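pinning this so it doesn't scroll away 📌
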Amino acid sequence: MSAQKILVVEDHRDTRELLKYNLTAAGFDVAAAEDGQLGLNLAHAFKPDIMLLDLMMPGTDGLEVCRQLKGDPATARIPVIMLTAKGEEVDKIVGLELGADDYVVKPFSPRELVLRIKAILRRYGAPEPNAPKLWEREGLRIDFEAHQITLDGEEIALTATEFKLLTVLVSGAGKVQTRDNLLDTVWDTHFEGYSRTVDTHVRRLRQKLGPYASWIETIRGVGYRFKA
């Protein structure tokens, strides 16, 4: 079985080399780019399983890279972990709105980063144990095994995290899912302040569900529920 591929887009040489060293040691096939445009080019040529993307870069910054990546059907499904500095709270939220799957704050633990990468890659794996193989209601159709969702006959693109989130909500239809439970189940982790991450992904998911957005109900002060 070939190694999973990671593309690192980071302008700071020492950080880039540190990432390459630790990720290669963890068994990944790693390619690296020193700027955003080269990162976009490598995304097409290298076809990574996941991308680590620094937000603050000269020229084409991380937000623009993410915008172009998610706007191109050829690269839209590549999961993205943003690498951010502590003070970039606004940029984190914008990045999540653009379709990034997660963020890691510098300085970070290489071990934690590897765990976060593996957690996101697992979201492309087997469906939830309680999920049906195929789910349909009115114009919404979800093929859990194929990781495919169609809306009134037209396929829509979800990120790995959005698909996992929808899977958890649909599998537990009628039951309230707290933000903490969603963090544990979807993100495989629990970090202080991540409730905003949950809310951001739910908002993006609703936008993509269009006329069926109301099927994801907000339970004020608790979390979310998919209509039974």
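📌 and the second one:
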Amino acid sequence: MSLQESFSSSRSTEIRGTAMPRSAPECTTIHARAARGIWPKKTAFHWAEAAGVKERLAKYWLAGRPVNEAGKLALIRLLD
């Protein structure tokens, strides 16, 4: 196997989001699941755009931190 083949085969691994921490409040889990259902790819990016916040904050929400009003309203607007 050449170096290029081994490099390309190692990069083909799909990276998935991590599971919710057990300490995450149930409402946070529901919001994160809804966001992942709406935007299965680049969830944090799209949720941040819809909520008008930075992508890093959306990543915190997806990691189990409490979702602020802007994040909740972004999901409600899309579901209505």
